[in-house]
Amino acid sequence: MRYLIFISPLALAFVLAVFARGDSAPIRFVEPAPQQSIPVVFDNFVWFKDQEIIDEIRKDLPSFGGAAPEDGDSIKKILGALERMLKKKGLPSQVEYVFFSGGGYQYRPEHVFVARDAKIPVCKLVFQNSPPQLEKDLQQAARSLANKDYSKVITRSFIEGDVIQVYRKYGYLRASARILSAELDPSCKNSVVIKIGAEPGIAYVWDKAVWTGNQALSSQSLNAAIELKSGEPADGLKIDGGLQAAYIVYHKLGYVTAQIAPRPNFDDVKKQITLNVAITEGPQFRMGNFIVKGVTEQAASALKGRWALKTGEIYDDSYLGDFVKKLVDDKVILPDLAKLLKTELKPDKQRLTVDVIIEFKI
User: Is 104 left (phi over 0), alpha (psi -120 to 50) or beta?
Assistant: First the structure.
């Protein structure tokens, strides 16, 4: 039995919060074995301790220990127990349920239960065991949650994304953090105070990057993209930005199948990191045909006249996006029409060309 309930703004928000991180790597989903127990998340039940909730659920589901199978009547019994608890507190008792498969690189299924219409804004976040010099940046990041209704799933996504990035900026490349508690605080107008526990680990300094497999770009130019000198704090954001810049340059030079695989080597004694980066450049592609669909022949001809990347020239993977943006900026097409524009790239691995197709879905 599968329950499909709602979607309320809060529940929709935590789904969007995960996918908004923009993970672009391929995702490999592995289905759980039949009747595998899946963790249960009580998303915003801040009026109760987790053990109180578990004890109440055990009245209907004696074997419950924080997880439940995907199928069967367990979900119905958990919903019933949660609604009872809310009624006893005189709170809005409607409970919503989502089977959430996770986001990003992992298949991380969860049963998520949300107290609907709960008005429980976040007052503040307290970061425990964090280096003092990070506090300003952490509190700046925390503004995205302040005064918004509390959600454990959204907060967890915030920690895995924004909070960890703050640590990485200062060289804490192996930092971890988690929610310690989320409780109503009378001194904060009975809003929620979230305590986050951190394990920063070592603050690493940058040693160097070692590039292998690169022929089209020199190691010197690739090093310049990272913008770090030996002995400086190993700013994880600069490392990410440098690798992304290298990827973009390769694709601008026609290496549309290029792959960049970084492998960090941490020296905990010297507190430094060396980054080994293996590059598989692949072949260089050239521009094939530019094809326009969905408009009149005259309009298609006009668009082809504006397309400056000629057949046979080295293919620039960034040109298409710039081309569409310029069409909008020059008022050749309206922004609403640009949203109806479908683009397609068709690489030919035999001819080493890329055909570009744009189609107006009007």
Answer: left
What would the DSSP string read from start to end of 36-91? --EEEEE-S-TTS-HHHHHHHHTTT-TT-SSEE-SSSSHHHHHHHHHHHHHHHTTS
At 28-73, the pLDDT tens digits run 334 444 457 999 999 999 999 999 999 999 999 999 999 999 888 9
d(CA 135, CA 141): 10
Q: Identify whether the C-beta of residue 327 lies closer than 8 Å to the C-beta of residue 338.
A: yes
Q: Classify 305 as helix, strand or coil.
A: helix
pLDDT at 8: 42
Q: Domain 286-360 adopts which CATH fold?
A: Ubiquitin-like (UB roll) (3.10.20)
How far apart CA 257 and CA 216 sit, in angstroms, is: 14
Q: What is the CATH number of domain 122-199?
A: 3.10.20.310
Find the helix or strand (DSSP H, E) in which 290 lies: strand 286-293
Contacts for 37 with CB less than 8 Å, ≥ 6 apart: 67, 68, 69
Among the listed residues 171, 154, 150, the one whose alpha carbon sits nearest the alpha carbon of residue 162: 154
Kindly report the pTM of this predicted structure: 0.82
Assigned CATH topology for domain 205-280: Ubiquitin-like (UB roll) (3.10.20)
pLDDT at 6: 37
The predicted pLDDT at position 26 comes to 35
Which residues pair with residue 261 across a beta bridge? 278
The residues spanned by each domain of the chain are 9-115, 122-199, 205-280, 286-360
**What one-letter code names the amino acid at 337?**
L
Cα distance between residue 235 and residue 247, in whole Å = 19
pLDDT of amino acid 280: 97
The two three-digit tokens of residue 9, written as one number: 């703004």
| Type of residue at 270 | K
pLDDT in tens, 135-145: 999 999 999 99
Query: In the chain, which residues have pLDDT < 70?
Result: 1-35, 103-105, 362
